[in-house]
Batch of 2 targets.
Target 1
Amino acid sequence: MEGNRMRIKTILNRIHNLQSFVYGDVRLIERNGQPTLEINLRPRRGSQGICAGCGQKRPGYDRLSKRRFAFVPLWGIVVFFVYARRRVHCPTCGVKVEQLPWAEGNHRLTTTYAWFLADWARRLSWTEVADAFHSTWYHVFSSVKMAVQWGRERMDLEGVTAIGIDEMQWAPGHTYVTVVYQINEGCRRLLWVGPHRTAKTLLRFFRWLGKERTRQIGFVCSDMWKAYLKVVAKKAAHAVHILDRFHIMTHMSKAIDKVRAQEGKDLKAKGLEPVLKGSRWWFLKKPTNLTARQAQKLAEVLRYNLRTVRSYLLKEDFQSFWEYVSPYWARRFLDQWCTRTMRSRIEPMKKVAAMLRRHRELLLNWFRAKKEFSSGVVEGLNNKAKLAMKRAYGFRTFEALEVALYHTLGNLPQPSFAHRFS
Ligand SMILES: [Zn+2]
């Protein structure tokens, strides 16, 4: 089989050259019911091991037993490098295991394979990647984690002048995370994620960003969440703080949902016609997104003078707020809308109006910022984040979530070899 052995070595030397090591015997074996390729590695004759402590070439001390290092599968066949690591005698560090060019620290995955798995994890769920390449969920996770660490250490934070702050619920109950996005026209990405949605969480973001960079922030988009408002006012008072459209309209949709649920119950209790049955989405969707049948149903329901209907009309009416150009007229509209809603005697809607009144100045910043940072940006990133969350499904830990979010939304730099095998 000399010919075959030569060919695999030739390929490896071509795609994965290791200067101080040589590829030796290649064996095709059956391992755990899988065809497996084992490729022996040995140090090049006369070369010294590199001390993992100081990175210097040092004389040998002894050798450890053989270990397998998983490499990128070739033609669907599992591949391992097999190598007995040397220990070196270092005058500075003592007896140390040598540093290997194909694997970091104590890892059993080669660096090339880890980048390969991490790259696939952008396109498939972690479980799918593990299945496709005969790996494990944990190996995929640690590969993605490695890629994220590498990228986070090298990310460029120049030019971050607009940020969006959002919260996400990621586990049943009330477990939230705070996410901060960069929302500049040319660069939209996840900058930071932290557990919970408290003032402390957001303070940690600003500490991470640093004073100098915080001073360069001109625009902050956020929800009306009190903890966020407080911290932004304290840490980025110089920036124009915009309450964004997406969040405000979400508050309104939630209010309508409440009104509808309550009213549905009331009607049922009174033995009246279940006109609201199945109507939830008609009221929440944009009218243009309704099917013909839904639009017709909605039109029927709108004939009744229901609280749900009145709430819906208030919300639809509020849409024109965003169309104003001048902050002056926008303010007049807002005041009128709030007065009308306060008189509606619909509690959930009144709550929304009271909230808008309280934050009137921040709301009007939207017009002062010339609508430059549309909520569509935060909304879009928010949807992507939810998708990333689903893909990482497996371990419900904050660490796994954090790694998944940075990996898919962080727009992180990668080494040039990362795509070579994918
Ligand atoms: Zn050393």
Note: The radius of gyration is 29 Å.
Target 2
Amino acid sequence: MTSEMWNRRSFLQLCGALGAGAFTAFKAEALERVQAASQSVADRSPEEVAKDEFFWREIQFAFKLDRTLINLNNGFTCPTPKVALEAEFRYMEMINMLPVHYQGMVARNCETLRPRMAAEFGCDPEEFAFTRGASEALQIAQNGIDLKPGDEVVTTDQDYPRMLTTWDQRMRREGIKVTRFQFPVPTTQDDLYQRFEKAITPKTKVFHFTHITNLTAQLFPVQRISRLARSKGIVTIVDGAHALGHFPFKLRDLECDAYGVSLHKWLLAPLGNGCLYVRREMIPKFWPLQAAPEQQDDNIRKFEAIGTHPWAIRAALGEALAFHQAIGAERKAARLRYLTHRWANALKVHPRVKVLTDLSDPPQSWGVAAVYIEGIDVRALARFLMNNYRIVVVPLVGGVPPNSVFDYQALRVSPNVYTTLDEIDTFVKGMEDAIKNGVPEDPSPLPETISEAMV
Ligand SMILES: Cc1ncc(COP(=O)(O)O)c(C=O)c1O
């Protein structure tokens, strides 16, 4: 089937020519329709498909959203598609019927997800552990590595606050030393590499950094820094909360020792899914957060023994993965980049607008970018966009340790695969309104939806 044929057929169906019965079937077949849409554009490049609104309409219909609001804060956690949400409810109901019977069964069946996830994201299944989010994954690695008083961890001022707090607690509790460095945004891969290289002392034992930051989405050269670390006997713990499922890469190619992910972000898995990758040889070097028997020392499953927990959430990950694969990782990344470029290119012609994310080629950014308007307070701007355009964006404002520290203020803008061009253009319109007419000052606290805590 050619893409024109697809477009014509999907157009007729979307016009409602088939009536309400067909609409119900349409919902049930959402995954198949996404797969069919992908198949129909298989002969076109991801960049071409990124601009095909007929293709993306299929994706938009795969979610139940509140379209009275424009969600440009997908860096927080993302809505999961209907197929995954419905699967979660189904598994929940099933387990609830007779937990002692069904819970164990679902738990055993979830083992099939390990090789599927490992194959998609490029690692050995025995290097892949399921967690409830990136915080848990990273804290397993951070708290699980043996360090003596005086041993040094090198990290950055723009790492995620909870992860910085974890190192700070080890500093207070065990007397390790934590060195943070600052960096400008955007900056180059060479610059970041050199900053790590310069920070090394004879006491350095761990490098901890993000693959992309949750702030401006600054990309780090993970493989180069990991090679440098390995050559000096330094362990690398990488925060991939925002990277996996967002843009394509293979975990093994990063060459880091441990890598933690929020699967409820860009993989669009139901809330409460994450994963931890640990390089095979390094598994025995990390203690699990919750104790495991000695026989499991070199078994990746030792990181997963957390007692009774809602297996339905993990089981539904299978549908989120299928949805991701049905779109295709390359097409998804190209679309996210297309949406980001659409607003950024429209806004950067205004002399007061500054984009703090590198939008150049080869790609270093996809669905997350940061922007500010000179002379306009970023909190007031977020409030203005919400009050006048119902747009949800998050203002970035630097804090003091143990939080992230940075000297810029910006809006983080993060659309998603379901975002329409109209929503992007409304954001541009709102920003242009702010540039032209200014925004009112309002010292009262921001509503929670758009507060800077929501990063
Ligand atoms: C960079 C980064 N690391 C870690 C986390 C924590 O992830 P989770 O909420 O899945 O525990 C986040 C969440 O926003 C993040 O942005």
Note: The chain has 18 helices and 13 strands.
